[in-house]
Amino acid sequence: MKVKQVVLRDSDGAEPAFRVLAALQPQLVLTFGAAPLLQSCSAALLGALTTAHHIGCSTAGEIAADGVGDGSCVVTAVHFESTKVALASTRLVSMDDSLAAGRRLGQALVLDGLRAVLLLGQGIQINGSAVLAGLTEVIGVQVPITGGLAGDGGAFEKTWVLDDEGLSSDRLVCVGLYGERLIFSHGSFGGWSPFGAARKVTRCERNVLFELDGEPALDIYKRYLGDYAKDLPASGLLFPFAMLGADHNEVGLIRTILGVDEARGSLTLAGEIEPDGYLRLMHASTDALVEGAEAAAQAALKMGTHPGQGLALLVSCVGRKLVMGGRVDEEVEAVAGVFGQGAMLAGFYSYGEISPFTRGVDCKLHNQTMTVTYLAET
After folding, report:
1. pTM of the complete model
2. To 10 degrees, what angle do helices 128-139 and 98-108 make?
3. How far, in Å, CA of 239 to CA of 235, rounded?
4. Whole-angstrom distance between the N-terminal and C-terminal Cα of the chain?
5. CA distance linking residue 45 with residue 14, whole number of Å
6. pLDDT in tens, 152-179
7. Could you say which DSSP state residue 11 is in?
8. What percent of the chain has pLDDT over 90?
9. Do residues 246 and 200 lie in contact, with contact meaning Cβ atoms separated by under 8 Å?
10. In terms of Cα–Cα distance, which of 269, 54, 52, 61 is closest to 161?
């Protein structure tokens, strides 16, 4: 396996840079970029690398081997020695189409020999949990799925997904990976701490939360946020919910706010809510988040790596980036420290992260986590 990466700060020089990547003869190209630069470079990218499958999205920050960027475009080409790559994509008609869209992706993949799936989706009008449920229904829980939801710099207005056909604001794309020599390991960890009382979910519909303890959810949330409430929904990234079961025990999932509806007093979360459960607010410190990123990398490392060249795909939540501010590079540096020189780093800051909890556990949509996927070949 061979990996090569270029980082663009503007569209000047894009075509020569893409020709350098084409010399690697990659089967897979991953592209993560700020929306304006991604739009200006995507046609040249697809034109220069016509034999590769393309998967990418707009971001709320880009991750490259040299650290975290804003307003850049990180393009990483992967040449596999024996692993086969297949791509599937589908239009997401509406949020209610999420489950069916996940099924369509699964049905478009050949299941025989499928080892792993990388999945990217638009990041706003989507129920990420339902997409995963539909995809898993078709391919089975034994195939790990990792990836994330696109961002748009924290604006929550319009996100973009790149596939072999080009850019779109309403698509989902995944690649299936096949081959016995593939190493595909993963880890996911947060670092957030709960505060305040646990509130009973008294009315919700899938990923829309209407009531907590019999009161409009938005009213309760605003009371907790205080001065931060005027900046919703963006400020909601600083105060996600921990999901608790009916027995008040944490289920290990965090949900962040994608949107608010003042008229209905509701909150739209990035993934589905347990209708018989409880929610509790969370907050974090930079040190705790950096430790969480290191724990995610250690989990992936324990599942398996290879002394040759590999790719570490990092998908971290935009909420973590906002909390860490100028120290955001520290979580990427922590991951790099775990893998050493053998892994090229690439990834993005997202509106939702996709990963199993551990080996042998079905895949979930996470919020406010760092997820790490390591790819290599034996």
Report:
1. 0.89
2. 30
3. 7
4. 9
5. 8
6. 998 889 999 999 999 999 999 999 999 9
7. S
8. 84
9. no
10. 54
Q: Is residue 40 left, alpha or beta, with left meaning phi > 0 and alpha meaning psi from -120 to 50?
A: alpha
Instruction: Report the alpha-carbon distance of residue 234 to residue 318 in Å, rounded.
Output: 10
Q: Which residue, among 100, 129, 118, has the nearest Cα to 174 in the 3D structure?
A: 118
Residue type, 1: M
d(CA 163, CA 214): 44
Phi-psi domain of 50 (left: phi exceeds 0; alpha: psi -120 through 50; beta: other): alpha
* Tally of CB atoms within 10 A around 263: 6
Question: Does residue 143 sit in helix, strand or coil?
Answer: coil
Closest listed residue to residue 319, CA positions, set 373, 265, 246, 254 = 254
> In the numeric block, which tokens belong to residue 29?
């190209």
Report the pLDDT averaged over residues 241-246: 93
Amino acid identity at 202:
T
Tokens (6 digits) for 105 = 């992706």
The pLDDT, as a whole number, for residue 358 is 61
